[in-house]
Amino acid sequence: MKELKDYIRTIPNFPEKGVMFRDVTTVLQDPEGLKLAIDEMQEKIENLEFDIIVGAESRGFLFGMPIAYNLNKAFVPVRKKGKLPAETISESYNLEYGQATLEIHKDAIKPGQKVVIVDDLIATGGTLEAIIKLVERLGGEVIRVCCLIDLPELGGKEKIKNYQVDTLIVFEGK
Fold first, then answer.
1. Are 101 and 89 spatial neighbours (Cβ–Cβ below 8 Å)?
2. Which residues are catalytic, by number?
3. What's the maximum distance between 2 C-alpha atoms anywhere in the chain?
4. 18, 64, 90, 91: which has the fewest C-beta neighbours closer than 10 Å?
5. Is 3 contained in some domain?
6. Is 147 in a helix, a strand, or coil?
7. What CATH number does the domain containing 122 carry?
8. What total of structural domains would you count in the chain?
9. pLDDT digit string (tens) for 48-90?
10. Which domain holds residue 147?
11. Are 149 and 25 in contact (CB under 8 A)?
């Protein structure tokens, strides 16, 4: 049986020269890889007391939604600016390759609700830091961050070091 890391495709020099892009579409395209990823991420959080899984557009949706469904939890999407239809709050942040803004509906999280954030990977930590800020501005409490992949050389875990972060795969090198 293959290990989860074996399902990840690495694409050199994408989206720019010197970057080793860790492509999770190969996990999604393989039924065994997809099941393994969802099951292993779910194991990291299934014994926690929490109310909501928050996932960032778009790969956080792919992993967070089935876990929320399996655990009978609510799922809240965090989207790129201008994509949500109701009243939102927003947070801008720096990416590895530029800047972006994320939004969440103002009524998505109630004060005191416990939140687990699910995403495909942690690189520089900018996306996760922005999501944490959004959740906390709404009064939610982030109790765990769960990502499929960690790219430790980019320092993302250090940026959100006050939160417990679980990852399944570690890739050394950019």
1. no
2. 59, 96
3. 47
4. 18
5. no
6. strand
7. 3.40.50.2020
8. 1
9. 999 999 999 999 999 999 999 999 999 999 999 999 999 999 9
10. 34-170
11. no
